[in-house]
Amino acid sequence: MSQDNTPSETASNRAESQSSATSRIPQQAALIVVFLSLFAVEPAAAQTNAVCSADNLPSMIEGFFQLTTALGIVGLAVVWQADSLIEMFTITPEQKKGLKRHKRSAMKSAVVLVALGPLYTVAGSMMNLPLAQCVDLAPW
Question: Measuring CA to CA, how many Å separate 56 from each of 33, 47, 128?
Answer without folding.
Answer: 36, 18, 22
